[in-house]
Amino acid sequence: MKKIRWGIIGSAGIAKRSVIPGIQQSETGEVVALASRSLEKAQDTAKELSIPQAYGSYEALLNDPNVDSVYIPLPNHLHKEWTIHAAEAGKHVLCEKPAALNAAEAEEMAAACEKANVVFAEAFMYRYHPRYALIREMIHSGEMGELRGIHATFTFNNAGDKGNVRYKKAWGGGSLYDVGVYPISVARMLLEEEPQAATVHALFSDAHDDVDMMASGLLEFNRGVALTFDCGMWAAGRNTLEVIGTEGRIEVPSAFVVQQNQQDNFFVITKDGRREVDVPKVNQYALQADALGRSILDGAPLPYPAHDAILDMKVLDACLTSARERRRVKIE
């Protein structure tokens, strides 16, 4: 079977730790090249991860005719620039979340990829895990009764690393950009609709270039349903999801990132008691790569096309405005 030949633009930790191994384990893809601003760094990383070609510039990788698709794990403020460059070079794009700094940038990126007739997707790996198809089925089946709300969290504590790119305001730093996008996207995915307004309260830290280090939010959906969430980079770690209905609820202990010592299973609590739902142990990064691969190879529709990234950014824009201005923001 023909495989998609991937090039990696940058050597960020998420690429080395998760996405590159995921592509290498996928059915449809192989990693053939990696680029860094430093040729030496690119060569070291490529050797470590058994990637045959290393480049000392991103441009050189984009000029490689043996690369079909690129993954972009660069800092957030570089996503737009290199997505557009990749599209112009005829490469399909998987861009790390958040797709851009705002919805206007995401629209430019999507337009550039459409013009070049290349696939574009935002890298939310968790959405490809089969447990979310099960959860959606349970919601649609009525087992939970009428849906009343969703609560999600994603926090970790890395505040001591003052030089981290997450703490550079101009680069798209902050907890809403970094991990708040997960609760936002999961609520949109499960409810299959867009929120109408956002209210967010945040802790901005002078010691971290005035980015939001912790944020708590409310997104208003139809029929009185809401997402309540919190996200943070200066708090004890967790990433959880709870779906609440009139007749039951669903708990996902490791909703977005599943570590080796954590489980993919989730729990359903109804009047009949609490049961654990077994799900297959999978590599969600490999499944993400295969979704793009099948779209590129076979023309299969992407589960989450470029327009979804624009909608995500519209919600994030409202959340950031609400946090800065301390007010409820309507989402058009």
Count of domains? 2
Question: Sheet with the most strands?
Answer: 9 strands, mixed
Count of individual helical segments: 9
Name the CATH superfamily assignment of the largest domain: Dihydrodipicolinate Reductase, domain 2
Spans of at least 5 consecutive residues whose pLDDT stays below 50 are none
Structural class, by secondary structure, is: alpha/beta
**CATH third-tier fold name of the largest domain:** Dihydrodipicolinate Reductase, domain 2
Which CATH-level-2 architecture of the largest domain? Answer: 2-Layer Sandwich
Q: What is the succession of H and E elements? A: EHEHEHEHEHEHEHEEEEEEEHHE
Keywords: Oxidoreductase
Protein name: Deoxyfructose oxidoreductase
Domain Gfo/Idh/MocA-like oxidoreductase N-terminal: 4-122
Family: Belongs to the Gfo/Idh/MocA family.
Descriptive account of the structure:
Helix content is 35%, strand content 29%. β11 and β12 (248-252) form a beta hairpin. The chain has a nine-stranded mixed beta sheet with strand order 14-13-12-11-7-10-9-8-15. Strands 3-2-1-4-5-6 form a six-stranded parallel beta sheet, with helices on both faces. The mean pLDDT is 96. The chain has two domains: 4-124, NAD(P)-binding Rossmann-like Domain (Rossmann fold); 130-281 and 313-330, Dihydrodipicolinate Reductase, domain 2. The protein contains nine helices and 15 strands. The protein is α/β, with parallel strands linked by helices and 332 residues long.
